[in-house]
Amino acid sequence: MGYSEAKYKKIKQSIKTNILKGLITTNEKISSESQLMKEFKVSRHTVRLAIGELVNEGWLYREQGAGTFCADRRESNLSSINENNKNIAIVTTFISEYIFPTIIRGAESYLSEHGYNVSIFNTNNQYNQEEKILTQILSSNYAGVIIEPTHSASANPNLKYYLNMEKEKIPYVMINAMYEELEPVSFSLDDVKGGFLQTKHLIDLGHRDIVCIYKTDDAQGQNRLKGYIKAHRECNLRLNPKNIITYQTENEHSKPIDDLKELLKVKADCPTAVVCYNDQLVLRLLDFVREEGIKVPEHLSFVGYDDSLLAELSEVKLTSVIHPKSELGRDAARAIIRLIQKNNQIDPGEDLSKLYEPQLKIRHSTAPIDKDLAI
Amino acid sequence: MGYSEAKYKKIKQSIKTNILKGLITTNEKISSESQLMKEFKVSRHTVRLAIGELVNEGWLYREQGAGTFCADRRESNLSSINENNKNIAIVTTFISEYIFPTIIRGAESYLSEHGYNVSIFNTNNQYNQEEKILTQILSSNYAGVIIEPTHSASANPNLKYYLNMEKEKIPYVMINAMYEELEPVSFSLDDVKGGFLQTKHLIDLGHRDIVCIYKTDDAQGQNRLKGYIKAHRECNLRLNPKNIITYQTENEHSKPIDDLKELLKVKADCPTAVVCYNDQLVLRLLDFVREEGIKVPEHLSFVGYDDSLLAELSEVKLTSVIHPKSELGRDAARAIIRLIQKNNQIDPGEDLSKLYEPQLKIRHSTAPIDKDLAI
DNA sequence: TCCGATTTGTTCGTATGTATG
DNA sequence: GCATACATACGAACAAATCGG
């Protein structure tokens, strides 16, 4: 039998997970050995091996005749180190994505100025990775956590870990999106308004057939879509369902471009403008439309999102929604320090959260509609 | 059976006594399990129970296939904190610079797979900031450091900190550049060759007046400049001193563009090609030349460096030197873990360092010279 | 206080997998 | 490739402590 899949290790992990999720609290009795035998369909020996190691690692303690109980890890392990605990964890979905470095840097500079260390973690937008990281943070020694939620559009399977963080009095703040059930301190752009601004700008320029292309497995994209729809409603414009293109992390490389290609084929009611999930997507689409001989913005206007480096470096400078990257990072850092200092208990009146008002930076990728130049 | 006379406890006591009597010394092999079974006339399970507890108490350690050995208790006591030390510091000059996130991510993914935490620090390419960070790392609890040297071209005022890290047996590896005095384990691109490739490609295309624009306050830029000169030498080409533009971090926003502007004014012996310090610089220059009505690559060829996201997203796709970003990050991570495991002492024969062979990715920003199209 | 059910503690036997030299 | 050593896993039995009735 392979070591990595050792049964006793699975049992260990399971028990440890339950502790970290807060399902078993200090001095609470865990299942008896015979119960665990049934549950995992293993021999008593195997159960005892698992429990034995957890006892040695300080997670549990045993009392003959009474049972096995959850140990109080804080006292034994942390008390000595705790005073010097100046570690902050920053958890992002994609470190290398183009706007994150700026956010991280904003946070890092503020935190290091205040004597904190910054550890970074990467979920790759995957729940199991997020779980692993939360597990690690909970069993290590962090004073606070700045986290961007994974797959923020769906219900979160790791909710228990967040609740346990609250119980363990480890403050956390969320950036860019949030799990609303938790009502966390959060820092994010008003994405509904952002999507609204993107769309309204084009409507004001006379556009009527506006395609939107949004990634909808995170809350950001879903909210931007809401804003896109809202702008149409407010202007009493008919909304063509065909003009709404959505994609997920999994198919982000193919679907947006394929679907837009399909739309541009039909010359009747052809779109005159496109709002995009972010600047990077715009640039990829610009490549494609250039090959097709479509001119931007004369034939087709584009609005980006994030106002990233790309928006300024591209040939056609992008009209884009300004994302307060660096400021957001600093604000999140300031808030987490405040929470740490206040021992995670702030006055009800003091709302640390911030919803940033988006603004549109108008450059050269959008122009008034010109019917004579229709594609 | 009474607990006080538990067989496994007797075995424990016997082994412990032998160690304390000096009959078994550090790293000496004790009797195998089967020998102990015969000696004490007990089952294997009982022997394992005794040994298991002694392992947990730090008296022994086991090696599968080899045997069970007497542990060095002095060390284990001192390094009991170090056993759990799974923190790696990554120190970069500019976190948000466009290629760093990819390097960091390469390192982070490998390190987190191996159970390490990653802390990041940012020197902003300033010595005093580097000093602050090194101070902090030395006074905290890091198992290893991956660092990009600050101002790598000049003599380093923080050398003592590096020497002290060696004394404290904190392994470090350098990326992208190195302080040669230290002869560190390092991972970097062969920048001389990179600059050579940039230039040689243009010479091969028939260009003779080639401008180079390099940042020379780091070793990367200085080496690329060397490569640029070397390419001219090898091809027996006259080198026009006016064609060498250098700049520093402080004036990177103005000097490159101003100097190039100056050069292009003079119609006599006007350059036909430009090699740049990195892709980002190329894109900024592309903006400027576009305004001037200069076409790329017809009138003026450009070669970038790093093969970044920008090279593929720009309108004119950039010919650029490939930087092994992610691979370099992983390699550095692998090396630091190896150094930690080997307690910073590797065999002289085992050279962990790696100098990456650069390659040129040819895209559309370079073309054969065409005298008829001279600017 | 004692009983009985439950729970952990100790010990035996056996078998097979995996790493080392 | 082989013997040896440790690693994982099953089954069974009895001892000792705890707890509710």
TrEMBL record, chains A, B:
PROSITE patterns: HTH_GNTR. It holds the Pfam family Peripla_BP_3. GO terms for molecular function: DNA-binding transcription factor activity; transcription cis-regulatory region binding. Keywords: DNA-binding, Transcription, Transcription regulation. Coiled coil: none annotated. It comes from the Bacteria. PANTHER family: ARABINOSE METABOLISM TRANSCRIPTIONAL REPRESSOR, LACI-RELATED TRANSCRIPTIONAL REPRESSOR. This is GntR family transcriptional regulator, arabinose operon transcriptional repressor. It comes from Gracilibacillus ureilyticus.
